[in-house]
Amino acid sequence: MKNIFLTALGTILLTAGLYAQHTIPVGSIASPSEYEVKNIEELNSGELDFCAVPFRKGLVFTSTRKPGSLFACSKDFAKGHYSDLYYAEKDAEGVYMPAELLPGDISGKYHDGASSFTSDETIMFFSRNNKKGTNSWGNIDLKIYEAKLKNGLWTEAKELPFNSNDFDNCHPSITPNGAWLYFASNRPGGFGGMDIYVVERSKSGSWGQPVNLGSKVNTAGNEIFPFISPEGVLYWSSDGFGGMGGLDIFSIPISNGEEAVRNLLSEPINSSSDDFAFTTNFEGTEGFLTSDREGGLGKDDIYSWKFLGQKPKLANICVVDEKTGYRISDAYLDLQLKPVENRKNGLTSINGMNYMQMEAMNVDGKEYLIMVPYKDDKAAPKLNTKNEKSCGLRLPIIPGRMYDVIVDKPGYQPLKKTVRAEEILANEEWLIPIKNMPPLAMKGTVKDGANELPIPLADVKVINSCTGEEMDILSDRNGDFTFPMDCNCDYEIIASKGEYRYDYEMLYSYDIQCNKENTTVLLYLEKEPKPEFSVGEVIKLEDVYYDYDKFYIRSDAAAELDKVVNFMRKYPSLELELRSHTDSRGSYEYNRKLSQNRAQAAVDYIISRGISSSRIVAAGYGESQLVNHCADGVPCSEAEHQENRRTEIKVTKFNEKGVRVED
Predict the structure, then answer these.
(1) CA gyration radius, the chain
(2) Is there a contact between 44 and 73 (Cβ–Cβ < 8 Å)?
(3) Element holding 593 (H helix, E strand)
(4) φ, ψ for residue 199 (rounded to 5)?
(5) pLDDT category, 374, cuts 50, 70, 90?
(6) What is the distance between the alpha carbons of residues 388 and 385, in angstroms, rounded to a whole number?
(7) How far is the C-alpha of 421 from the C-alpha of 404, rounded, in Å?
(8) Could you tell me the maximum CA-CA distance found in the chain, to the nearest angstrom?
(9) Is 226 strand, coil or helix?
(10) How far apart, in whole angstroms, are the C-alpha atoms of residue 216 and residue 221?
(11) Which pLDDT score, from 0 to 100, does residue 255 have?
């Protein structure tokens, strides 16, 4: 059936079904022998029969049991050979009676099919051609419709509002509560070919905007036939992920943004042919699928499937720090189903390998069992649970079985243990605690940056990013220091001494090699240059100006005052007088008060940045110290007056350890 899906998708009329099922054993969790797949011979014909959906006491399905084929989608080839919806009811012995057209006015002139029903079975969603049957390119153009059941007849079919004449919408699958509709579409903006989308349906029946389900579901190939379970597990078919051949059936949990793992359903659900239109019952133990596998009656046949083994349950899993309970999402987590001993047909399973037990031999009075390796091509491979993330996972777990668990993360002790499924499923979430590596010895050396000689008795402060704990250490006479560290945390190491500038290093957890004896860090201190100022010196602040008759701090002034703040932080013994001057306009007394306000505004700004008020004072000089000729009565430009509206700092005290300046 491959040609159908890779053209304009004549079989877009196929659907991924109804509304209800719990999780079935997905991927390779169950062995092939635990499934039973049967051709429903009384339902199939020599033509295309597909997409069986449970309805009332039987099935609704799509069929082209009129003469013709649906293998191509051109107008001429499909002319007169269209699909319709049929209903077949079971008799008292569980055998399907002859199928009849679904009653009502939904069997149109062209293709109808792909049905999905609400839980009360009064509303049906299905796929249909547009009124002309084809689009402007001559290909089948499909849309999703809604119909209602009235007096035993399906009627009042209407288009859904997100349809278009420019692309296809098909394969509707409504959730049990009727709030979400999953479907397939080749609308623009997808990953390529057909993609799976979901759209919200309000209680009033209005529709939201379709949302693409992303790269874990969609590929550049074709993704079709979505089916969503009440537990939030999506089943669909794809030819883009690789599998057993043709279209294969996949599943993935979709719930609350949790990290999901895509699974390929095992044989005999999937085969080397096209397998699609998968549905289940509420218990997740049986359902239907469509396939063109070898041995069928027609081109596509409807099959029933039944799971004969133990049904898995979804478990929420998260790796956590044993001490803090911190949730760890980036650990390596491998969860493997342990093989069970299987002595059927003389076989024994040891470490996942089947052996055939031969007759016992007696050698020198000792009895030996001869075990011959036995390869079964249908044996189930290992469960693929080597996950990209280790928290927020939902994985299917089979009750009564044993699982091998491996967890590994840098900075933690590797974990390997075997647990029972009941332990995993005992609580709402299974937490896997892992222990930190024991503390390691961090070594460091403080050196002179100019000559690389060790600096003895240097002050070293180490800050643990995990706990915020600060540790003060003094380097020894060789400049060395050491302390215990947690290799799962980041560290900031700061070294300082007297006449030297401080140095610091960041040590990140991903750089710490926990499997080694220690980690070494080097810090280099440079001597402070002699300050370019002395006590009593007056320094002009170049960009601290004020608007006329104002004393608020302008943005350009704030940037210059920040330099003063940094200067005072660098030299804790530095004390200043901040001096403000005005131009000559205005009265002498007024200007004195204005300059005092300006100086105080600047000082208040510096104090607001964390400088102690005891280290800086404000002094307003008014117009008493003009720097140019612009005295009272002298005409001057605004720029010349601005030169007099200035701010300066005067060094009043400086006694920095190891730094000498002139008084």
Answers:
(1) 40
(2) no
(3) helix 588-608
(4) -135, 145
(5) very low
(6) 9
(7) 10
(8) 131
(9) strand
(10) 13
(11) 61
> CB under 8 Å, gap of 24 or more: what pairs does 292-297 form?
292/1, 292/246, 295/39, 296/39, 296/44, 297/39, 297/41, 297/44, 297/45, 297/46
Q: What does the block give as tokens for 318?
A: 């998260």
Closest CA to 534 of 437, 629, 615, 650: 650
Classify strands 440-448 and 480-485 as parallel, antiparallel or unpaired: antiparallel
Distance CA 174, CA 75 (A): 30
Name the nearest CA neighbour of 37 among 359, 384, 296.
296
Residue 117 to residue 59: CA distance in whole angstroms? 11
What is the reported pTM?
0.50
Residue 642 — pLDDT band, cuts 50, 70, 90? confident
Q: What backbone phi and psi angles, to 5 degrees, belong to 311?
A: -75, 130
Element (H or E) spanning 567, and its range? helix 555-570
pLDDT in tens, 302-319: 999 988 877 778 889 999
Residue 507: strand pairing partners: 491
DSSP string of 96-141?
Answer: BPPPEEPSBS---SS-EEEEEE-TTSSEEEEEEEEEEEE-TTSBEE
Query: What tokens does 499 get?
Result: 């006449």
Using DSSP bridges, classify how beta strands 275-280 and 263-264 pair: parallel, antiparallel or unpaired: unpaired
CA-wise closest residue to 87 among 122, 118, 63: 63
- Count of alpha carbons within 13 angstroms of residue 372, beta-carbon side: 8
* Bridge partners, 431 (sequence order): 318
Pair of tokens at residue 607: 């104090």
Asked if 320 contacts 393 with a C-beta cutoff of 8 angstroms, the reply is no
The rounded distance, in Å, linking the Cα atoms of 173 and 235 is 11
Q: 3-class SS at 602?
A: helix
For 86-100, give the secondary structure using H, E and C: EEEEECCCCCECCCE
Per-residue buried b or exposed e for 145-155, using 16+ beta carbons within 10 Å of the residue's own CB: bbbebeeeebe
Q: Which of helix, strand or coil describes residue 308?
A: coil
Domains and CATH numbers, the chain: 2-311 (2.120.10.30), 314-434 (2.60.40), 440-525 (2.60.40.1120), 538-653 (3.30.1330.60)
In the numeric block, which tokens belong to residue 370? 């001869």
Could you count the other beta carbons within 10 Å of the beta carbon of residue 359? 6
Contact 330, 388 (CB under 8 A): no
From residue 55, alpha-carbon distances to 70, 307, 362, 534, 585 in Å are 25, 21, 64, 96, 96
Q: Bridge-partner residues for 184, per DSSP?
A: 170, 196
Interval 213-259: pLDDT, tens = 999 899 999 999 999 876 678 999 999 998 888 899 999 887 654 45
Mean pLDDT check: name the lowest of 61-65, 414-418, 439-443, 639-643. Answer: 439-443
